[in-house]
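Async update (no meeting this week)

Hi team, since we skipped the sync, here's where things stand on the single-chain job. The sequence we agreed to prioritize is pasted below, unchanged from the tracker. I ran it this morning and attached the output directly underneath so nobody has to dig for it. Comments welcome in thread, and please keep replies under the output.
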Amino acid sequence: MNTLTADDIRAALSYTPGTGIFVWKVNITKRIKAGTIAGTTNRFGYIQIVFRNKIYKAHRLAWAYVYGHLPDGDIDHINGNTSDNRIVNLRVATHAENMRNRKMPKTNTSGVKGVYWDREKRKWRAALMFDGKKKSVGYFSELSVATKAICKAREELHKSFARHN
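Output:
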């Protein structure tokens, strides 16, 4: 098994924790020379780096570079910006915690994450996912009240991984 180590990463790449940018220390190809910024952005906004013929997400390499090991769990981008690989923006998370910190879906029509209009009851419904189950916060006549209720519930359940919008 050919496992990538922090020493392997440090030998080939330099990483600046304050910017989150990797730069090649060695020539990789005729086009990618030492001093070149490493990585490309994928369609989800993550920086990925091809290293030893394998694709690695830069945030995982950053974690290994700084802490000496690849993380077992997910790495969460605290501010939600998947290309911001500054070490202060990264934290180890379970998959469930990482999902709690997701942005509001593009299909949302209320403008508030976790709140939608229930046509049948003719009220705003506030609900969120927690531990794999949908938790209803309640039905509300006013969007502003539903917004306050969902934010409060999210902070209580999701704690530091709560993302409101």
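Quick observations from my side:
The chain has two domains: 6-93, 104-161.
Residues 127 and 136 are 4 Å apart (CA to CA).
Reply here if anything looks off.
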